Amino acid sequence: MKYIRYTAPNAVPIAGMRRWLQDAFDTFDEFGPRLENAFRASTSAVAADLYENDDAFNAVFELPGFAKEDIQVSLENSVLTVQAEANDRAEDDDLAHTASRSVAVPDNIDSGKVTAKLENGVLTVTLAKAESAKARTVVVE
Amino acid sequence: MKENLPTTTTSSCEVANGGQSCATRNRTVRPRYKAARRESGVELRVFIPGTDKSTVNVSVDEGVLTVKASRNDSMQEGWRPLITEIERLDYRLKLELSSEFDPEKISAKVEKGLLLLALPYAETAKPRDIAVD
User: Fold this and answer.
1) What is the ipTM metric for this complex?
2) Which letter does DSSP use for residue A41 in this model?
3) CA B49 – CA B72 distance, rounded (Å)
4) Which residues of A touch B (CB under 8 A)?
5) What global pTM score does this model have?
């Protein structure tokens, strides 16, 4: 009996396939960073956390690269909005950036007691709960 | 033509763990970064919110720039989480530098949750005028 190696009809030689894959990745290597920078030069997505305890809510936003003067915090219709624009760069600079994020918060907030603190690129906004919304213990007589 | 900006060398998972298997390490995250070409070199901004200078380590070994940083902030104890999007993981980033940079002259500064790296070109890579006799 004679054995003959089987070759699939449209098989691509391994060496050719490797070259084809390499070319594809090389193209992406060139194009990828440009595309990435094109998006990042505009507005960055901002990751956020929201916490609650009996007295307040704490909203935490990642805002690296911004000074406190660059950041605006507003609360309107139970939506907390943070907007930031770095002022130390010309607009056409590749490293210029802005950031914006809104988070819906419960409506039981005392709008007169909202504070914000920026540390190491992390903004923490504390929103005190309205007195009527705070948990309280009722003494049974 | 390929850009001579720093490029990543391995997958983000391997990069984040110094080449170790992803299954056997502490979880880390690859920080976002931006680069801009200047006359004297490349300016790199690595976004590392939640870290301060004391936890940031930058090294260059055999043409590979490595950034390691640990977050100082943590989930707030005693608070009930309603939204949790922030990944509080340590940062790991490796970038392969081309020979046009001078590794001895790289400088780093941490401010506002950013690591600012200046990667100056090596003298041999800089354009120069040649006098014609």
Assistant:
1) 0.73
2) T
3) 9
4) 26, 29-30, 33-34, 37, 40, 47-53, 57-58, 60, 62-67, 93-95, 97, 103, 119-122
5) 0.69
